[in-house]
TrEMBL record:
It comes from Halosegnis marinus. InterPro entries: Flavoprotein-like_sf (IPR029039), FMN_Rdtase-like_dom (IPR005025), NAD(P)H-dep_reductase (IPR050712). It comes from the Archaea. This is NADPH-dependent FMN reductase. The keyword Oxidoreductase applies. Residues 182-193 have a biased composition (Polar residues).
């Protein structure tokens, strides 16, 4: 069996990000498997200007694309911003496309300060399907995040179990036989237009 590469794309720029903490936890669970390598893609560390298809990509974009393309499974983690996913994650995903995501397993995780958290998961599922990724049915929504973490640790058992399950599913489904292309992906002309 070949090495399985699992990455987490962290869609938060906050220093004390609950999203980053949850992504790290999921990757730690994935890393417990034999022949698994994990990669936390922290968007704070990459130079990603606002996407513009008329401009040459800076080195940070090249690094992002290479790291996402190298992954067999990618966890998309985001805070809930105004009922959707973060702009920084949207910008990173705008740089990506079929080359990075086609036939890749994708897991979804959203962290909300309040109770509302399902819409960002739906939005990310649509984006992933549009680039022909295979999205894991199990997803995670951590609501009321500040009460779920203590000293950088996810202490809420129910949510911790869901994050751990997501970490396992990223490995277990990393090489699933992909579905035929989705209608969304066949209609997606890509970022060149």
């Amino acid at each position: 069996m070949d090495t399985i590469h699992v990455a987490a794309l962290v869609g938060s720029l906050r220093e004390a990000s609950y999203t980053r903490l949850a992504c790290r936890r999921a990757l730690a669970v994935a890393d417990e498997y034999d022949r698994v390598e994990t990669d936390l893609i922290d968007l704070r560390t990459l130079d990603l200007p606002t996407y513009n298809g008329d401009r040459d990509d800076p080195p940070g974009v090249t690094e992002l694309l290479e790291r996402v393309a190298a992954a067999d499974a990618v966890l998309l983690g985001t805070p809930n911003y105004h009922g959707s996913y973060s702009g920084v994650l949207k910008n990173a995903l705008d740089y990506c496309g079929f080359d990075e995501f086609e036939d890749t397993t994708v897991g979804l995780l959203v962290v909300a300060g309040g109770a509302y958290s399902s819409a960002p998961l739906d939005h990310l599922r649509i984006v992933a399907r549009s680039v022909n990724a295979w999205v894991i049915p199990h997803q995670v929504a951590i609501q009321g995040a500040s009460s779920r973490f203590e000293d950088g640790v996810l202490v809420d058992e129910k949510h911790a179990e869901r994050v751990d399950t997501l970490g396992r599913r990223l490995v277990e489904y990393a090489n699933i036989e992909p579905d035929p292309p989705t209608q969304e992906s066949e209609s997606n002309v890509g970022a060149d237009d």
